[in-house]
Amino acid sequence: MKDVTCLIDRVSAVAYIPDLSYFSKSLELNPYVDAVYRSTRQGDYDMNIKCVDGSFIQINSREQRKENVRVDFNPNTIHGRDTVEEIQKIIAFMKHPRMTGIDFAVDYHGYDLSSLSISTPRSMKKAVYYAPSGKLESIALGSGNGDKRINFYDKGYKERQSLPQNHPHWWRVEIQRSRFKDENDYFINPYEGMTFTFSDTFPPDMKAADRLMLIGLQEQPELWNELGRKVKERLRDLQHQASKSLDPHPADVFELYKEEMRTQLQELFMPAYRNSILFKAL
Fold first, then answer.
1. E strand intervals along 52-134
2. Spatial distance between the Cα atoms of 133 and 250, rounded to a whole number of angstroms
3. Of 79, 83, 225, 250, which has the maximum CB count within 10 A?
4. Is the peptide bond before 31 cis (omega within 30 degrees of 0)?
5. CA distance 172 to 179
6. Contact 198/115 with Cβ under 8 angstroms?
7. Which of 173, 208, 212 is nearest to 190 (CA)?
8. Looking at residue 67, what DSSP letter applies?
9. 152 pairs with which residues across the strands?
């Protein structure tokens, strides 16, 4: 059975907590806290806190700054009511939270995407990884320093030990976003302008030189920028003839789930929003 969904896979946010001493004490005997690591090294945060569900909290007590706390968690791993309440107890201390990273994941269940090719509007660094069997395992586009990074991978392969043998294909197209302009930028569709195509049989009348060009551009997409406009347009047309597009497109799936994800994020951070003067005035 085929199924396509979209979810928030990771959230990072920074905020201001006025009384760090009281906040730290509230965590000392909290069963939600798994481990506390204090750092003497120079850096933004001198206390790192790992929680039982994998959530992560960092505190900067060295400097008096507007944003002195960072939280990082996966909304999908805080399944139980208790852990949701615990992360919200921590969020309740925060004022003026600002998202610094949101990972979106479009999951394709029952689709074999092992021959999928991804192109982006602007050239991005690309790395392709294969499993020992020679089958495509993942494609990474972008770098850790950019504001967008795309990870396409065989989620079923990674989860194989916990899945039944007859589990259908499970592929994920994940985009890690950061450096938002403002809160209106959180849910701008990150998949817009990208193309997702399957390589199909080249038309029999296509010249061998054109086939080689398309194969080479698939492996090194940054070379598109070195082509002249007319050559680029001609090769784009040939590429379209020799491929078929992924349906549904990740951008369309994102739009279907966008309001649901927006609501989820708002509900999780509602305890912090209640600290704002604007919320109290409503």
1. 56-59, 69-73, 95-109, 116-119, 126-130
2. 28
3. 250
4. no
5. 23
6. yes
7. 173
8. -
9. 139, 173
- At residue 273, the 3 state secondary structure works out as helix
Strands 56-59 and 170-178: unpaired
Q: How many helices (H) and strands (E) would you count in the chain? A: 8, 13
The SS3 call for residue 200 is: coil
7: tokens are 């979810």
Helix, strand, coil percentages in the chain from 3-state DSSP, rounded to 5: 30, 30, 35
- 3-state DSSP call for residue 238? helix
Which residue type is seen at 93?
A: F
Distances (CA, A) of 138 to 28, 109, 191, 215: 40, 16, 18, 18
CA distance 47 to 65: 15
Coil, helix or strand for 204?
coil
Mean pLDDT per 10-residue interval, the chain, length 282 residues: 89 93 86 85 84 90 84 79 79 93 96 87 86 84 87 80 62 95 94 84 77 79 84 80 83 97 94 66 36
Residue 82's pLDDT is 63
Sign of CA dihedral 155, 160, 163, 164: positive
